[in-house]
Amino acid sequence: MTSPASFHLGRYPAGAAAFPHRGLMGIAGLARHEILFLLDEAEQWVELNRQPQKRDDRLAGLTIINAFFENSTRTRLSFEIAGKRLGADVVNMNAAQSSVKKGETLIDTAVTLNAMRADAIVIRHASSGAVALIAGKVDCPVLNAGDGSHEHPTQALLDALTLRQAFRERSGGEIAGLRITICGDIMHSRVARSNMLCLTALGAEVRVCAPPALMPEGIEAMGVAPFHDFNAALEGADVVMMLRLQQERMQGQFVPSPREYRHLYGLTLDRLAKAKPEALVMHPGPMNRGIEIDSNVADLAGRSLITRQVEMGVAIRMACLDVLTRSARGAEGWA
């Protein structure tokens, strides 16, 4: 299968220079052309995944370990499906039964994983920086599937791919120039952070909205506009991305009650009407229906992109696994 990158030779450097990174720790540190390269690479997998035969064996003989030290459904399954559709042997590590629960240090776990000679390791961990720590102790590419409140790079990439495809279908347009409102628990959300980095790099105007207690200080430095009034943040928005409250990362009371939070920050049909006509709706999941988003908005035909985000997640993760293992595979044209 021809790589979509071959059709964009002037868009980024040739060969391995298009994406010179050993792993994928986050969106921070990626150049705009590197983000575009991964999005372009994912296009071929979107098409493959819509075919009856969803199989490409370019990773045949390689072993990928999914080491999830934090619960996940969408991301773990998405990475597992991505690896298997590329022909790799995928091993899922159950952290609840791992030696970490018996007192083994994270570094010892990393050394153990490295000794098994995996060809790529996908890691999710509840502590910010844990994935980078493991990456520094292993010889193979590491992909960050979410570390604490730090980053979730493949989520931001799949969101960008979802938007790019949706606006190409609607108007032939791109992400540059879109006004995107992200609302929810901005402070604790790695999805918000990665999306702010990714979407601003691609030229979008990004607004973030949260209660004062859930808005990080100095967030303007990330090139986004902060709001506490959700109605004001929605004015003129092309896209509304909702986030759940990250209760597992909160210590203390950040909002008065779920009912009060919904009243001020929940996305209802009436509130969505304050955005542009036909504005699109996104949510990375899992959703708390009736709190940050109403069901009749989450399921709004023609405007909700939530299930398409899940679909794009497999394609993006296939692209990342393919690109990051090319050097080890000696892929043609990849030095």
Q: Determine the structural class based on helices, strands and strand pairing.
A: alpha/beta
Number of discrete helical segments: 12
**Tally of DSSP β-strands:** 9
Low-pLDDT residue spans: none
Backbone shape: globular
Distance between the termini: 19 Å
Biggest sheet descriptor:
5 strands, parallel
Radius of gyration: 20 Å
The chain-level mean pLDDT equals: 92
Strands of the biggest beta sheet: in what spatial order?
7-6-5-8-9
Name the helicity range: 25-40%
Reading the helices and strands in chain order gives HEHEHEHEHEHEEHEHHEHHH
Strand content: 5-15%
Question: Key features?
Answer:
alpha/beta; five-stranded parallel beta sheet; four-stranded parallel beta sheet; 36% helix
Give the helices and strands, then pairings.
Layout (H helix, E strand, L loop, with lengths): L31 H18 L13 E6 L5 H12 L3 E6 L11 H10 L4 E6 L4 H6 L6 E6 L5 H19 L7 E5 L6 H12 L3 E5 L15 E3 L2 H5 L4 E4 L15 H8 L3 H4 L7 E3 L12 H4 L7 H19 L1 H4 L6
Parallel strand pairs: 1-2, 1-3, 3-4, 5-6, 5-8, 6-7, 8-9
Description:
With 335 residues, this protein is an alpha/beta fold. It has twelve helices and nine strands. The protein has helices at residues 32-49, 74-85, 106-115, 130-135, 153-171, 190-201, 230-234, 258-265, 269-272, 295-298, 306-324, 326-329; strands at 63-68, 89-94, 120-125, 142-147, 179-183, 205-209, 225-227, 239-242, 280-282. The strands form two sheets. The chain has a five-stranded parallel sheet. A four-stranded parallel sheet has the order 2-1-3-4.
